[in-house]
Amino acid sequence: MDGHDRTLREWSALLAEDAEAAGVDLDAPADLYGDGVVAELETRVAALLGTGAAAFFPTGTMAQQVALRTWAGRTGNPTVALHPLAHPEMYERDALRTVTGLRTVHPTRAGRLPDAAEVADLDEPFGTLMLELPLREAGFVLPTWDELAATVAAARERDAVVHFDGARLWECTPHFGRDLPEIAGLADSVYVSFYKSLGGLSGAALAGPADFVAEAKAWRHRYGGQIAHQFPAALSALAALERVLPRLPRYVEHARTVARALREGLADAGVTLPLTHPAEPHTHQFQLWLPYPAAALDDAGLRMAEETGTSLFGLRRFTEPGPPGLSMTEVTVAEPALAWTESDVRAAAAEFAARLG
């Protein structure tokens, strides 16, 4: 179960458990405009990422708007280089331009993060390079560690700063073979989410040098993010850092088993060319592509859940982002999936395939 599946009753009951898991005294005063448990969370995140400071934000969209406009002011350049599939281009209603007054350029349109040569050869200056780790819309993909380091170095050669959209940074450590401070240390600033990957209630943090974070907090106030009481989100985030963060490497490892079992189980059941992307997931999330209309796949999944009590894809639906009849869904391997063996996944894949007709 992740946060999208919980009811109001479940969330309410969980908050007291979260406080216990995080070691927070429920008899202490509630936070007020960012003190108390919110400040404790900020200190914890800065320590985890190895940065000078961190600031809590109610949303990741706000955190990134603030980060990029702060760097634009410091560099004197309002141009941000990023992938066209990055979150600000896909899901923020053009806020970078409309609200923040920035403009964007795209070093590459390939289904991966830009490489060092593409950053070095970009034909106009930019003040900030933003890298989404992992790049969700391309399949939760990551570069190798050496490729990432080279891309960052290429940006620095152009006198640009580097910001990581690390909404899912928490789950990147197995792929890179590096700890969080080493990964975050490549960038000048990092945003992390508390509900993506970690399954917390909501909220995000922006981390970086202390003077940068202090300026970001001023912009947070201007953007309406200085909320009186944020203890529910902060408690949930602190608990998620204790409960879920240590488990993410297991999720990533098991995702590789699940992806293989899905491909092979569907193929054995007669589905033509089932594809997972990446073939070996870089994180605990990946794409599954099947040569059927989305409506037929959603219907098969619903009937399987009704008839067997087992849901292979949870609340996820299929879409047709490419040619008609070629559909994709995102698969997330979290705590419930750990109980599924490889043979369990194969059997469920066969049950699903049997309902495709």
Automatic annotation (TrEMBL):
It comes from the Bacteria. Residues 34-264 form the Aromatic amino acid beta-eliminating lyase/threonine aldolase domain. One of its GO terms (cellular component) is cytosol. Coiled coil: none annotated. Keywords: Pyridoxal phosphate. InterPro entries: ArAA_b-elim_lyase/Thr_aldolase (IPR001597), PyrdxlP-dep_Trfase (IPR015424), PyrdxlP-dep_Trfase_major (IPR015421), PyrdxlP-dep_Trfase_small (IPR015422). Belongs to the threonine aldolase family. This is Putative L-allo-threonine aldolase. It comes from Actinacidiphila reveromycinica.
